Each structure stands twice: as C-alpha cells, then as structure tokens.
Amino acid sequence: MRIAVLGAGITGVATAEWLRRDGHEVELIDRIEPGDPRQTSFGNAGILAANAVVPVPVPGLLAKAPRMLLDPDGPLFLRWSYLPRLLPWLTRFLAHGRLAEVERISRMLGALVLDSVDQHRRLAEGTGAERHIGDGHYTFLYPDRAAWEKDKLGNRLRQEAGIRCETLDRAALTAADPELGPDYGFAATFRDSGNVTDPGAYTAALFAHFIREGGRFRRAEVEDVRPDGEGVMIRAGGEEIAADRAVLAMGAWSGRLAERLGHRAGMESERGYHLMLENPSHMPPGPYMLTDRKCAASPMEGGLRLAGLAEFGGLAAGPSAAPTALQRRAVRRLYPRLTWEGESVWLGHRPSTVDSLPMLGQAPKAPGVYFAFGAQHLGLTMAPKTGRLIADMIAGRPPNIDLADCRVGRFD
Ligand SMILES: Cc1cc2nc3c(=O)[nH]c(=O)nc-3n(C[C@H](O)[C@H](O)[C@H](O)COP(=O)(O)OP(=O)(O)OC[C@H]3O[C@@H](n4cnc5c(N)ncnc54)[C@H](O)[C@@H]3O)c2cc1C
C-alpha cells in the first residue's frame, strides 16, 4: 500500500519505519526535518519512562492548582490571557482526576509503557540510532521518606502495574552521587526504565535509516486530508497527493485536521521547557525526577538537561521567563556547587488529550485515516509501540492489547 505519514516527530518516524518494514511504500510529510529543534521530540527529557502509569490529574489536583499557580517554585504556569480558551479543555481534563478514572487510565498507560525500553531497542536495532539508547535508571528524588510515602496513590498504582523500585536513603544516594544537594534525602529508583541520550539526534538517526532503506520524505505544510474513494487524498504544499492510507501524527498540531475529519481530538498543548547546561562540572548517574519541582535532570550527550514543568498558553505564544527561572533554581538545589560553560533554553508542546491517553487507531468517519497522536508527557516512551500498533492495524493483524480506551471518536 502507499501510506502517507503526516508529521515526522518521533511518533511519525517510528510509525513510518514500522510500516516500511511491513513492505509498504511510505512517505513522511512534515514542514521541518526530523530532529529539528521545533519538534517536541527534540527537547524532551529523554526518559523511557516504563514506570509512568500515573496520569497528571489525580484526586486533589483541583484543590492544589491555585496554590501551584501562585507559588514561583510550583510546576504549573498559565498565560492568564489564554484562560478563556483553555477553560473548556481544562474542565474536562480535571474531571478525569476522579479515582475510578485515574485507575482506568493507569491500566491503559501501563499497557503502553511497561515494555517501552524493549520496544525502543527493537525499533533502533541496526539503524545507528541504538547508540543513543542508554540504560540510565530513572530515579525519583524526594526531600525525605515521608514525601515518598505521601504519594500513596502513585505508589499503589505502580505496585499494581508490577513496577519494581528500589528505595535509597541519603547515604546510599550520596555514595552514588556525592555532589547531591542536602535538600534530597530519599529516592526511588526504577531499574526497568531507560533513557535516550540525545532525543533530536535519535529521531534524526531513525529517519536517516528509513530514507536509506527506501522510505521517502516530502518537506511541506500539510493542509488537508480527506477520504477519497477507497483511499485518501492529502493536500500538502499546494499539491494533491493520493494514498491508500494516511496516518495523522502531527503531535500537538493534530487537532485541526482531526476535527475537519469529524472527530473531536480533546487536544491542548501542555507547554514544557528545557534548560540545557553545556560542559557541566558534574553529571547525575542517570535521569532524576525532582519530585518537588516536577522537573527532570537528565544526563545527555550535549550536557545536563533540566526538562519538564507545564504551562498553558497555546501553540502560538513564545516562551515565558518564569519556567526557566524555576529550572535555574532547581539546578542549584540539586547541585549547589555545579558550574557550566554555556546554556540554551527550549520550549516544546506536549500533545495532551483531556483523558491523558493517546488517540490510536482508525478514524470511524474517515476509515483510510489512522490517528497516532496525544501521548502527552510520554510521546518518546510510547513512540515505537504506537508505530507497531498502527502497522498492525493497517495490516489487519489484531493488536495484542485492548485499545478501546484509546479509540478515535471517544470524545465525539
Ligand atoms: C519539557 C518536555 C519534556 C518531556 N520529556 C519526556 C520524556 O522524558 N519522555 C517521554 O516519553 N516524553 C517526554 N516528553 C513528551 C514528548 O516529547 C512528546 O510527547 C513527543 O515528542 C511527541 O512526539 P510527536 O512526534 O507526537 O510530536 P512532535 O515531535 O511535536 O512532532 C510533530 C510534527 O508534526 C509536524 N507538523 C505539525 N503540523 C504540521 C503541518 N500542518 N504540516 C506539516 N507538518 C506538521 C511538526 O512540524 C512536527 O515535526 C516531554 C515533553 C516536553 C515538552
């Protein structure tokens, strides 16, 4: 079949590559090259978060949100002028924070992330991209044991999903990382996770392999996709392109086309930031989550990357200063004596749906089009499995997991 994959971030590239391996004629279409800093897939924290079964909205978030917004060290930011546009999405997002919903969402997330390191290794093997996969264990840092114990729901959901963790006291932590600041006295390490040491280079390397093996790339703005007889018609860069199938994988920008096809996407950009410190005097032994700042500190090929936080302000507005200022304070808290030589700041757009689950599968109102977007904070982690599942569906192979909770049309 001729298949067009619309959007060439990590989700689109992984999907295109699995479809190519199935013997299809695949064309990736994007307005920028894979690996470009304007992709969300470029600047993330690089964590293959096989432990990430806890969605952002949980019981009690609504009560805590105003305090988080007013606290300069809180992980949540809002462009107030954007609030009227955000409200309908935000109301639905918070409504999914009920306990029964969180448990349902958690089970689905588990099916998508638990084997993510293995999924990445299978996608990357023999492509050249495997050199960017590390086995950096993901460690959650807490001020003390009580702070860890306080996350009863998170600990329970991870335990129910069969996720193993090892706890460390301050002595064990500083034995592994002597520069660690005094504010962190306890940790939980997840050994089944991994990391990508340069997410932009990883996407670019997978893409280069796809092209070497006969995949095609068209650099163009995708303007439309619609059903056309048994297949689909795509308009990109002013040209009409006929294909048998199309995959919509345009990350946070997917909502407009999804809605033109008659399906509500329930999508919002959850903006996130990174602060990259070049040539730091010290590196963590693996990626950390600073649980009190909701910010990751990840050792990368280009330096130490502080990445995370959530800001609502839409796709068009430029970066705000406050999230980066928080990340600078967070570095000092993590490593009080750290020095570095240069730095860069980045803003990206997480594709977040109201129920924290991706849209995966065939669009009922446009059967030639498959949706593959909405992996929110976990798009890197989930990308290879997303690609395999879409390839299975297009080939008519029944996926080996129940994807009902991710079905297209669930918000219509
Ligand atoms: C600060 C931060 C930290 C994160 N950390 C992690 C992490 O540690 N682990 C993890 O798993 N995830 C993480 N994420 C989330 C992850 O980065 C995203 O979920 C993932 O990159 C989304 O990939 P994507 O391919 O769907 O979207 P993108 O990478 O955004 O790609 C979408 C592509 O679609 C293209 N496109 C859009 N509209 C059009 C159009 N009209 N025409 C042509 N092309 C178009 C864009 O140009 C872009 O290339 C993080 C995100 C942020 C912001």
UniProtKB/TrEMBL annotation:
InterPro entries: FAD-dep_OxRdtase (IPR006076), FAD/NAD-bd_sf (IPR036188). Residues 2-393 form the FAD dependent oxidoreductase domain. Pfam families: DAO. Keywords: Oxidoreductase. It comes from the Bacteria. PANTHER family: GLYCINE OXIDASE, SARCOSINE DEHYDROGENASE-RELATED. This is FAD-binding oxidoreductase. It comes from Paralimibaculum aggregatum. The lineage of its organism: Bacteria, Pseudomonadati, Pseudomonadota, Alphaproteobacteria, Rhodobacterales.
